[in-house]
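Assemble and predict.
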Amino acid sequence: MYREIRNHIIKNLKAGIRFDGRKALEYRKPITVEYGFTKTAEGSAKVTIGETEVICGIKTEIGKPYPDSPNEGTMMVGAEFLPLSNPEFEAGPPGIDSIELARVVDRGIRESKCIDFKSLCLEPGEKAWTIIIDICPLNDAGNLLDASALAALAALKDFRFPKLDEDGKIVYKEKGTEKIKLLCEPVECTVIKVGEFFIVDPIIDEQKAVDARLTVAVLRTEILLLCRKAEIVL
Amino acid sequence: MSELLVKDKDIVVPGEVLAVGMDHLPGKGTYREDEKILAGQLGLVSIDGRAIKLIPMSGRYIPKTGDTIVCKVTDILMTGWRLDTNSAYSAVLSMKDATSDYIQRGADLTQYFNLGEWLVCKIVNVTSQKLVDVTMKGPGLRNLKGGRVFSVNTNKVPRIIGKQGSMVSMLKNATGCRITVGQNGWVWIDGEADKEVIVVEAIRKIEEESHTSGLTDKMKEYLEKVTGQKVTE
């Protein structure tokens, strides 16, 4: 079904130019980050890469730590693809793509150890902060992975712990001041292979013609943290 | 005596009062509320005698009989093909409107048009329930092989085509690309990689400046600048 568009993409890549005039290893412009996009979340951000727009919100609650790590807080990443952002997305329970996106973003944050989970513990074995990161694409014009990972990182930087009242309950209405300590800043980059060519920041047409996809999370010091290979077509 | 509150070619937004009084008549894109005539959408005012019309500047495509559109095959039916028309209503291309070949009952229709293929077709009928029938029989109506499709604002399509197709033929001459502009806002192009990018950027520029006058001359200048060649209309 996508063979014709794939052939056309490869023909253009042979000439060294992509559909929107970019070179193979060039991101769309502008890339913008807007902190504090929603009022109700403890941390939020909106990221745009070209026409792709993603918002990310972080809520928190106090929960019980997992039994195997009694002195650590927990983190969850969820993603919901709204039909509003792409006509091919369906409403309803999360599909395979949104689960994959959430997991890739989760791994980037978790494996980079940018959050010190021990610092999220309030009372070992009893009480710890649970950080819930929710990702929601507003417009899918391709490369949701990179945009979502960047949005999640930006939302973490915007995150403030809410205040607690005398009974130890969270007062959600007031915005706190204490930040979460980030030890590093992982950024994810996705490279796709179409024919014999490798390109970054794919648009929708290019994503449909994909032969293989690789996502890596990197730090400023260029340490490889995570690899996610997917959609390999042999 | 009724009062006209806008001038010809003013840009108005939905809900804006265009005229007060019963002497004027609400035309396309406007509606009457008691004494007032209000704009129903974003557009340019066009005053034609007593009638006030709006030339829309935004909104989705609505199928109209006689339009030539670019569509995509989304389903194979028992007797034809279902096409996506870039609007809320899908179109049906029946076998007899697609080809003059004899097709055996139960034959595989994908050998004519397969899923995901792009077609240029013409709307022959739109029912009151917005069931759309299209045909492939006519000059220039064909299956679009290769190339790529991108979408533009349907309300700017007349400017992209230009008077008697002057704008689009200028684009073709300047870039050597093959271009098909559908009334539904889908544009198909095929050509050399760098030239295709010029076409896309030129069409985006036309969309942005569609409300200005002397656009063909402006675009001629622009194309001469980016291609570095003399452009004939």
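The longest strand of chain A covers residues 127-139.
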